[in-house]
Design goal:
This protein is α/β, with parallel strands linked by helices and 554 residues long. 32% of the residues lie in helices and 13% in strands. The strands form 5 sheets. Strands 1-4-5-8-6-9-12-17-18 form a 9-stranded mixed beta sheet, sandwiched between helices. Strand 17, helix 16 and strand 18 form a beta-alpha-beta unit. Helix 6 crosses helix 7 and helix 6 packs across helix 10. The longest helix has 21 residues. The chain starts with 22 loop residues before the first helix and ends with a helix.
């Protein structure tokens, strides 16, 4: 199956006239110094019959405003695999600003939200300023929230793409194509495509790919950075015709191209889903009792009993990771709370120095106009008092806590969950923890009610083992703590999670931090983790700081 040369009428507002089969334009662009990546087998040819070659990409010149000045950006659009099964989504955009060089890093934008908003039409775009353009691009490299403007001003190549996700409706044959590992597989395929075409790229160093995303995108960025070149993904990569995956004469998958990244910038990652439900209840059990309600309404005694049961599971899980604190002590739920509080206090102290007491007071008042903040007292002399338990109570009082369990509850009749990320291709979803599996009440093919198997029994079956593998393949923490994994872990990590974010727990983020702190592949000099001052569930609020960090490691 050969990839079609695409003249795609997507995002018309962002386009000028497109050139189909833009070989001549590409040839002209590549007359400048093209990068030569150290990655293996970057050997695309200019032959447009090569299904993975950039040579048949559509090429468009756009002119965004960056700091008020018009800039020329060349936009390449292509399919990044040989055998797409969602051609409307499995497309890639490469934006090369006029000031980019062969040494420029590549900012690889993950657009996932809630593990589902990954369509090509919702990707990060660089927009032009022509008269016919509805949404002109006017970017400010001085803005603390505009990564596009900052990247363009620095001459960084920007890459954005679409991929399969759990939001995809079933096909006419009733197949759900967006279950794990589809989202990770497609992302790795896009990275491999860039390396395959390294010699054809007019600019950008494929050894300096920086992956970045928020929420589900933060989790996706993290697992891609933690699972580079893992054989877990080889079969699914081969199925879609990703670059650099072959079958040898013995029927074994062989990879000849690196799908790792140089660095990751991740915001509020919804990660460790297998244990996120347990971590949420470990964090918020006592708070639930005080607040007395969650998204679904009143928290009952039965709810609290389930919450306590799930919380205990996190105690067992954290102990199994054998992580150490900064002082070399075993990290357990006995000291995790103190560790989180210490990280919070570090952020408060840095914020006092950076913003000042007056600005922080104003921030608090804008967030809580009744100024009912009992968890933090800021004194004029720069001292403060902080109470972690009161912090949790204040947060839950302003934003209702998620239901129980928080991330796997579709079969329980609740609506905030990630269950549709998992399951066979013929099932809409699968519960992915023991509690939701054993208590599933929907008539379908999953759960104790339909299979007659408890969770412990089911995971011993072939289908159960497949489900466990699907869960693993979404989780950075799993790969970071698996000494037997055949992975190449990114060295450089920048992770932020807001102090006013209740969408996942502070415990999950702390466990990610300590997993990075304990991993010898991670450069401890560049590791940057913070509970960001009074930020909600959001990202890209500190672009200047993040890109200053990036400049320091390049």
């Amino acid at each position: 199956m050969k990839k079609k040369t695409l003249c795609i009428l997507l995002s018309l507002a962002a386009m000028v006239t497109m050139t189909c089969g833009g070989t001549s334009v590409l040839a002209e662009a590549t007359s400048s110094d093209a990068t030569s990546s150290d990655a293996t087998s970057a050997d695309a040819s200019t032959d447009t019959t090569d299904a993975l070659s950039l040579a048949d990409a559509t090429v468009t010149e756009i002119h965004p405003l960056v700091d008020g000045e018009t800039m020329t950006v060349t936009w390449y659009e292509d399919v990044y695999m040989a055998y797409p099964n969602r051609e409307e989504d499995q497309l890639i955009s490469i934006y090369v600003p006029e000031n980019a060089t062969a040494d420029s890093p590549i900012i690889f934008c993950v657009n996932n939200s809630g593990w589902q908003a990954d369509s090509y039409t919702s990707r990060t775009k660089v927009l032009g300023t022509e008269e016919e353009t509805e949404d002109a691009g006017d970017y400010s490299s001085t803005s603390d929230t505009d990564k596009i403007g900052k990247a363009l001003s620095e001459g960084y190549v920007i890459v954005s793409y679409g991929c399969r996700s759990r939001a995809n409706e079933p096909t006419e044959d009733g197949e759900y194509q967006g279950h794990s590992p589809a989202t990770m597989t497609d992302t790795k395929a896009a990275i491999r495509y860039l390396r395959y075409n390294a010699d054809l790229l007019p600019a950008g160093d494929t050894d300096k790919i920086v992956i970045t995303g928020t929420s589900g995108g933060g989790a996706l960025s993290s697992v891609i950075a933690a699972s580079a070149n893992s054989s877990d993904f080889y079969e699914s990569l081969y199925e879609i015709g990703a670059a650099g995956i072959e079958l040898d004469e013995n029927g074994n998958y062989v990879s000849t191209i690196d799908d790792g990244v140089f660095a990751v910038i991740a915001y509020c990652p919804i990660t460790d889903l297998a244990n996120a439900n347990f971590a949420y209840e470990w964090t918020y059990h006592d708070t639930r009792e005080r607040v007395g309600e969650n998204i679904g309404g009143e928290t009952t005694e039965e709810d609290l009993a389930v919450s306590e049961e799930l919380a205990q599971a996190y105690t067992d899980y954290l102990a199994s990771l054998n992580l150490k604190t900064e002082d070399g002590e075993d990290l357990t739920t006995d000291n995790l709370k103190d560790c989180i509080a210490s990280l919070m206090e570090t952020e408060i102290e840095e914020s006092i120095e950076e913003y000042g007491i007056e600005q922080m007071q104003a921030d608090i008042e804008s967030f809580d106009n009744e100024n009912n903040v009992t968890w933090l007292t800021l004194n004029e002399d720069g001292t403060y008092t902080y109470d972690y338990d009161e912090h949790l109570y204040w947060l839950a009082s302003h934003t209702a806590l998620k239901n129980i369990p928080a991330f796997s509850n579709k079969g329980l009749g609740l609506s905030v969950n990630e269950d549709t990320l998992f399951g066979s291709s013929t099932d809409e979803y699968s519960p992915f923890i023991y509690y939701s599996w054993n208590n599933d009440a929907v008539e379908n093919n999953v759960g104790l009610d339909d299979t007659g198997l408890t969770w412990d029994e089911y995971i011993e079956t072939e289908d159960g083992q497949y489900l466990l593998q699907q869960i693993r393949m979404t989780n950075a923490i799993e790969y970071l703590n698996d000494d037997s994994a055949d992975t190449d872990i990114a060295a450089n990590w920048y992770v932020r999670f807001g102090m006013a974010d209740r969408d996942t727990s502070f415990a999950v983020e702390a466990t990610l931090y300590y997993s990075l702190l304990n991993n010898e592949s991670v450069d401890q000099d560049t590791l940057s983790f913070e509970y960001a001052w009074l930020k909600r569930h959001m990202g890209d609020y500190d672009v200047q700081e993040a890109y200053e960090w990036l400049a320091g490691i390049l």
